[in-house]
Amino acid sequence: MVERNDLTPYLVKVARPVFEVTVVEVRAGSHEEAVALAREAAAEIPDEAWSGAFDPDSYGFDIQDVIDVEQMQAMISDGIASPDAFAMPEGPSDGIRYAVLRADTEGGEGSIEPQPWMQDVVELMLADLASDWAAELQELAEDGFDIFLERRRSNSGREPSNDP
Question: Taking the chain, what is the end-to-end CA distance rounded to the nearest angstrom?
Fold first, then answer.
């Protein structure tokens, strides 16, 4: 591979989803009660009882942050910013949270799985986020995956994950 000198170095923070599973046995009087009891019990299950890993065939990556290294170094040397201002912590970036859309690809049913962070967000912010998600899901439903993916690439400058 030929090295190009005109390329700019960037630091890019990438996230990927990992879904872990376990089996919980509960005694309940109904399906709904079993679900509620399993949700309660799941919070107490130790990490080592869960199994799972990233599945690149089913899930993609999310770009959380992009930093131009040369601009960062110039801002630090000019005293405009401190190195701490560009720190990328190992965990998720501040303010970035993920919603879980559950898809039963055999039965054709989908649902939103509420996440704990949602109860801590101001109602107006959650309504705005839900509106954004609904608009993108509507585009996906109307245009299909390939057109939706291409539009995201060309409009947002943000590269969607796992090209088909």
Answer: 24
DSSP per residue, 44-98: TS-GGG-B----TTT---EEEEEEEHHHHHHHHHTTSS-GGGG---SSPPTT---
Question: What residue ranges do the domains of the chain occupy?
Answer: 102-164
Amino acid at 43: A
CB 10 within 8 A of CB 67: yes
Contact by Cβ (8 Å): 19, 73: no
In sequence order, the 6+-apart residues with CB closer than 8 A to the CB of 86 are 11, 67, 72, 76
Residue pair 21/49 in contact (Cβ under 8 Å)? The answer is no
Q: Tell me the residue type at 73.
A: Q
pLDDT, tens digit (0-9, with 9 covering 90-100), for 94-127: 788 999 999 999 999 999 999 999 999 999 999 9
What is the C-alpha to C-alpha distance for residues 140 and 133, in angstroms, rounded to an integer? 11
Give the span between the Cα atoms of 29 and 27, in whole angstroms. Answer: 7
**Going by C-beta distance under 8 Å and a sequence separation of 6 or more, which residues neighbour residue 49?**
22
pTM for the model stands at 0.71
Q: Are 41 and 24 in contact (CB under 8 A)?
A: yes
